[in-house]
Each structure stands twice: as structure tokens, then as C-alpha cells.
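Worked Example 4.2. Consider the chain below.
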Amino acid sequence: MIELTTIGGHLIFLGVLFFVIGLIQGLLIPFAKNTRMALSGHLTAVQCGLAVIVFGLIWSLVQLAPVLAALAAYGSFAGYFLIWIGITIASITGASKTLPIAGAGHKGSPAAELTVRLFEIAGSLLSVVAGVILLM
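Applying the procedure from the previous section yields the following C-alpha cells:
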């Protein structure tokens, strides 16, 4: 039987919040410097928000040591959030080196390019680590 745990409740809240942020970002797409990248950010927030909600719903089925459980739960959200914020920064600044498909035709400042790269790498690594822990 699935029951709502404290961490599960947190994940559901964070997932719904992330989902709503994604919906709001969808309204702002036309105002971004790179609208393709803004669409990517919108879809990332909506999809990752849904994933975090599902994690929260099934969290009572996860059997991990407390430290690993916290790392998997909050690490997955933090990783997704870092990826989303990197994409959003790229949509505003025009940064495109890290995300060349959605960034085609745009160029950001060296600082913006570095910031996006760091957010994307950190978010991707954190998401993968959290996912591997969940698979255990």
C-alpha cells in the first residue's frame, strides 16, 4: 500500500510548485531573447515537476538509509531545478554553447555561457546520482 511520507509530501509540494513555475514560464516565452530555449525551459519545468510529483507519490515504496533517501529525494529535485534554471538563463541571455540545438543562432556573453554550463553540468550530475540511488 502506498502512504504519504514526510519526504513524499515535500516532493509533491515541490513538484507542484515546479509545475506551476513551468506554466508561468510558458506565458513568458514571447518575451525571451531566445524563444526556442524558453520553450525548452517551460517544458523542462513542467515535465520535471511531474516527475517529482510521481517520486513523492511512490516515496513510501523506497527503502533507503536516511542519508541516501534524502540525497535521492532532494538531489533529484535540485538537479532538475539546476537544469531548468540553466536553460532559463540561456533563454534570457542568448547563451548557446552548452545547448546548441535550442541555442542555434544565438550567442551569450562569456559569463552567461559559463554560468549555463556550470548549472547544466551540476544539475545533470546531481540528477544522475539521485537516479542511480533510486535504482538501488
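Helices lie at 6-28, 35-58, 66-93, 100-103, 110-135. The chain is about 75% helix and 0% strand. Compare this with Example 4.1 before moving on.
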